[in-house]
Design goal:
520 residues; alpha+beta; seven-stranded mixed beta sheet; six-stranded mixed beta sheet; 14 helices; 22 strands; 21% strand
């Protein structure tokens, strides 16, 4: 992303400064979902039919609580039933959703959001009271599984208030020039102030619930009074299936949408007229996490040695079938705050062996914990184990349950397979690299790093802010436990008769957005 583009996005987030702390319009408004494959009469969209969408399941770990979503299948259901105030476009820039525009004071400690004229599924209007209730629920200290709790801890609910029927002012405990982007993260959906039972969700989404059974099926019907015009399909079914089953069902006419397919499937399906591949280039991240809070990776020399052992080009060519780009041990390649000046880390077996000998870690046997939960995990772990053998290391590949892998990997093994969808770099750091992060799979815990991140979050000066995030990324590159070897293309598949599916990165507005899909 260019410096000029970064500048424009920063100004859109921070707002133009006004005298005396007056609120200044950020310029963020207009129709939601810009840049997506929105369907309308001119493009031949039509209503009717049922769409069956297949995702990797999570068994009894699945939930329809929008603030506890952790799995892709949970997120798809949340997007169907609920809306956020703000969402992210394909470039990780915030775009309006339930908030049609926003503005801030000069030091970005007070934000005012103008709400859309939206209805909940029970017919009640969406109001500032619902926004404050939703944030209060997310921040409830008794709910440790609420995904966005740490990220939104900057909100001062006691000083926040509604201003009229469609305006809410959110006060912050410290400056946050990128606050709207925080409201676009996972686990930030707006719920009704009457929301009490997650099994009985009432949202503002384009679909309303008919039935849900964890690990089995989710069925929802079109909500005709949705503020954005409602969905085209009559009924949405979200079902759990492993990768092979998703492909077979799609080819056999038993499903219309298959989430996250393998490069191998994509290559073979390109000759199949019944299937269409929808690819978002280089928009995800695959890594091997090295747990810095355990031996031998509590020694930075060992961590660096393992990063030097990776043949990233071969991993991309073999595991991703060439559908991706090499990584450089940092998240967010191409996004705002990604430092472009750091040289690409190359394979150096000789240097790795010297570092391992210095640390007394040669000829040891270590285990990498992986699973078939995501395409390429087992293959990457196996290939990296072969590459590590070139330095005299023995790496044993251990596979775990796909139903519980992302939870289990936090406590099992000294290495593990890791991936991430698209998100802002600050969100990734907050969720995965701080001492208190719920998903800190690499065990990276540094008080100085935490303090620098907090400073960056509070800094409204753009140049200083960029410098601080650059410092954080360099720390991750040099000492962190992310062996981020590649950025795969994001591959989804649809039946040939499905229209309106955008080639969007995961975790963005147009990813798995079934309200804009129709059947030809």
């Amino acid at each position: 992303m260019s410096t000029a583009r970064n500048r424009r996005e920063f100004l859109a987030l921070a707002g133009a400064a006004g005298a005396g702390g007056a609120l200044a319009l950020t310029g963020c408004g207009g129709a939601a979902g810009s840049g997506g494959a929105a369907a309308d009469g001119k493009s031949g969209a039509r209503r009717g039919g049922q769409l069956r969408a297949l995702f990797t399941g999570g068994g009894d770990q699945e939930t329809i609580d929008p603030h506890a979503e952790a799995l892709a299948i949970d997120m798809a259901r949340t997007k169907a039933l609920f809306d956020r105030l703000v969402d992210l476009d394909a470039n990780m820039a915030p775009v309006p959703r339930l908030a049609e525009k926003w503005e801030s004071n000069t030091d970005a400690t007070l934000w005012r959001f103008t709400l859309r004229d939206a209805l909940f599924h029970d017919g009640k209007k969406f109001t500032p009271e619902d926004v404050l209730f939703s944030l209060g629920r997310i921040l409830d200290p008794k709910a440790a599984n609420h995904f966005a709790q740490g990220l939104l801890a900057v909100v001062d609910l006691k000083k926040s208030r509604g201003v009229g029927p469609r305006t809410v002012e959110l006060a912050l405990k410290r400056p946050s020039a990128e606050f709207p982007a925080l409201l676009a993260t996972l686990g930030t959906a707006m719920v009704s102030s009457r929301y009490r039972n997650p099994a009985d969700p009432v949202g503002t989404g384009a679909f309303r619930l008919k039935s849900f059974a964890a690990g089995q099926a989710f069925v929802a019907e079109r909500f005709d009074d949705h503020w954005d015009g409602g969905a085209y399909i009559d009924e949405l079914r979200i079902l759990a299936a492993d990768t092979d089953a998703r492909g077979n069902a799609l080819r056999g006419g038993e499903a219309e949408y298959a989430y996250e397919m393998t490069p191998t499937f994509a290559r073979t399906a390109e000759a199949d007229r019944a299937v269409r591949i929808v690819a978002a280039k280089g928009s995800t991240a695959h890594a091997i996490v090295l747990k810095c809070d355990q031996e031998p990776f509590d020694n930075p020399d060992v961590t660096l040695a393992f990063k030097l052992l990776a043949d990233r080009g071969k991993l991309v060519d073999v595991v991703l079938a060439g559908r991706g780009t090499v990584g450089n041990d940092m998240f967010g390649k191409g996004y705002q705050y990604y430092p472009e000046g750091i040289p690409q880390r190359e394979r150096d077996v000789a240097e790795a062996r010297l570092l391992l000998r210095k640390a007394g870690a040669l000829n040891k046997t270590l285990s990498i914990y992986t699973s078939s939960v995501a395409p390429g995990f087992v293959e990457a772990a196996t290939l990296f184990a072969e590459q590590a053998a070139d330095a005299g290391l023995r790496v044993k590949v251990t596979t775990g349950s796909s139903d519980t892998y992302f939870k289990d990997q936090l406590t099992k093994g000294v290495m593990g397979s890791h991936r991430s969808g698209a998100m802002t770099i600050p969100t990734y750091i907050n969720d995965r690299l701080l001492t208190g992060s719920n998903f800190n799979a690499s065990g990276w815990r540094r008080k100085g790093f935490d303090a620098t991140f907090a400073k960056a979050q509070a800094t409204t000066d753009e140049a200083e802010r960029v410098a601080l995030y650059g410092q954080l990324q360099r720390s991750i590159h040099d000492e962190g436990g992310l062996l981020m070897w590649g950025h795969p293309d994001w591959l989804n598949a649809t039946a040939a008769r499905v229209r309106g599916v955008a080639a969007a990165p995961p975790n963005t507005l147009d990813s798995a957005r079934f309200d804009k899909v129709w059947l030809a």
